[in-house]
Amino acid sequence: MKEVMLAVWIPFLGTTLGSACVFFMKDKLNDKVQKALSGFAAGVMIAASVWSLLIPAMNMADENGMGKMSFVPAAVGLLLGVFFLLLLDVLIPHLHVNEEEAEGPKVSLKKSTMLILAVTLHNIPEGMAVGVTFAGMLSGESTITFMGAMALAIGIAIQNFPEGAIISMPVCAAGEGKGKAFLYGTLSGIVEPLGALLTIWLSSYFVGIMPYLLAFAAGAMIYVVVEELIPESAAGEHSNIGTIGFAIGFVLMMILDVVLG
Question: What string of DSSP letters covers the chain?
Answer without folding.
Answer: -HHHHHHTTHHHHHHHHHHGGGGTSSSS--HHHHHHHHHHHHHHHHHIIIIIIIHHHHHHHHHTT-GGGTHHHHHHHHHHHHHHHHHHHHHS----HHHHHHT-S---HHHHHHHHHHHHHHHHHHHHHHHHHHHHHHTT-TT--HHHHHHHHHHHHHHHHHHHHHHHHHHHHTT--HHHHHHHHHHTTTHHHHHHHHHHHHHTT-GGGHHHHHHHHHHHHHHHIIIIIHHHHHSSS-HHHHHHHHHHHHHHHHHHHHHH-
